[in-house]
Amino acid sequence: MTRDEDAVGATLRSLGWPVYVPAMLWGLGQGAILPVVVTSAVDLGASLGVAGVVLAGIGLGQIAGDLPGGWLVGRVGERNAMLLSAAGAVPALLACVFAPSLWLFAAGVFVSGLCGSVWNLARQTYVTESVPFALRARALSTLAGVHRIGRFVGPFAAVGAMAVLGTAGAYWVHLAAAFLAAGTLLLAADVRPAGRPPAGEDDAATLAVLRRHAPLLRTLGVSVASIGALRASRQAIIPLWGIHIGLDATTISLIFGLSAALDMTLFYPGGRIMDRYGRRWVAVPSTLLLGLAHLLLPLTSGPAGLAVIAALMGLGNGISSGIIMTLGADFAPAAGRPQFLGTWRLFSDVGNGAGPLATSALIAAFSPAAAVVVVGVLGLWTAWSVNRWIPRPVR
């Protein structure tokens, strides 16, 4: 190990307890409830269509929480905002467990998404404050990676709990994970370097930050929204295309799992490339690969072809782990950092929410093949746009 690598390892390890362990726990909780929200809604009398809308409430909560979350982090600081998020998740998840009506359940789902938005923003701000620029991409890509690992493990933890507690067991897993994450935060030492004030000492107005950075947000911010749409579309299109070509649920799940496994394992190499060679070396290839994979999807007609395309999508998504957070951290001003990052996350979350909806609408209006071609073209445009709009002084 070189001296540089040893320094990097020590820095990333110092973020383990205050950042990475809580992030993995929170991701585990989210992963535990995602597969069962639709089932719970149906049990309360919802149709499949309405249940899908209830599930979308998690994403809507994240969108609703981005700008207020920036204000909150700016007022109380990152660690306090994460603790408040964990506290807010408790009544939301209890509502999911004990809700006597669909409306109360939907409200609990929405609030859980809102709390997740504040949590994600606070941890991103904390890492941005705590690491030097030379390590930023690795720190943030690792943050995104451990969260994905948690979400991957979450459904398996939920299966064990549901064997004893029924469907409610999944929500109890999220509750337990939130408590453990908050406890870890309380016990962990603050690793912020001396001389860097906590975000809570800054009270920049969100609207002022928006006006100041409007040119960046309407160019690179739109590209960030497109990246979010590409990523979310990938999660929807793999199972939809599998059904379209006649594969059974087990085969589709195995193929999806292959893509998710590649996605989880590539976060650190992607971060290292960004730190060593520049952000473009990940932003452009990853979006280009996702776009090309979508364009090639209509050529597949069996499980082998779909598995190859899913692997390409997992590769493109995996190496780009943390790219949106890293770009946001690069451009965030010292004054008003959490407010800027909240706005930055809003663009990404809108893309995440719009991607599956637009894909489904295109499938309904035209065909699955037409939908994936449109998304593929969006990927090619996104590759061009991030190359065009990442300023040259920022690597």
UniProtKB/TrEMBL annotation:
UniProt keyword terms in alphabetical order: Cell membrane, Membrane, Transmembrane, Transmembrane helix, Transport
Q: How does it sit in the membrane?
A: Multi-pass membrane protein
Q: Which residues form a coiled coil?
A: none
GO cellular component term of the entry, any: plasma membrane
MF terms (GO), sorted A to Z: transmembrane transporter activity
Presence of the UniProt keyword Chaperone in the record: no
Entry protein name:
MFS transporter
